[in-house]
Amino acid sequence: MTQSAMRTLAEVEELTVGMLIEPVELIRLVGCPDVTTLRARVEDPRGGSDSLRWNGEFHSPASLLARWEAEGYVCGVAGVHSRGALSSGLPASLPRKRGRGRLG
After folding, report:
1. What is the per-residue burial (b if ≥16 Cβ within 10 Å, else e) of 64-100?
2. What are the E-state strand segments in the chain?
3. 97: alpha, beta or left, given left = phi > 0 and alpha = psi -120 to 50?
4. Which residue in 27, 39, 62, 95 could disulfide with 20, CB within 3.0 to 4.6 Å?
């Protein structure tokens, strides 16, 4: 997810401060920790270098995905942040504002 994608989602109220996001199943490696340990908190829905917090550290979406890849939690993340490789982790059946679908 790029900074501009985060900003767009924030503008339609799909991405808000405090929302938890996680990598989608497609990029998670077998043997990666329980997905709940990979949930990051949105600090700034407009994106940028300090827009996500995971394990007490601030990251941009790209840097967080790169870190997860380096630690062996996800694979093939080059460019996937621009295709929405982060998900809200919420069931698709939950009602969403303005009729939007699930993130990721």
Report:
1. bbbbbbeeebbeebeebbeebbbbbbeeeeeebeeee
2. 20-23, 40-42, 52-54, 57-59, 86-87
3. beta
4. 39
Q: So what's the pLDDT on residue 2? A: 58
Q: Which residues of the chain have pLDDT under 50?
A: 80-83, 90-104
- β-pair type (52-54, 20-23): unpaired
> 27 and 75 in contact (C-beta within 8 Å)?
yes
pLDDT in tens, 70-80: 888 888 655 54
CB of 1 closer than 8 Å to CB of 90 = no
Per-residue pLDDT at 102: 41
Residue 23's beta-bridge partner residues? Answer: 86
Distance CA 100, CA 90 (A): 13
Report d(CA 100, CA 70) in Å as an integer: 33
Q: Is 34 exposed, middle or buried (0-12, 13-18, 19+ CB in 10 A)?
A: exposed
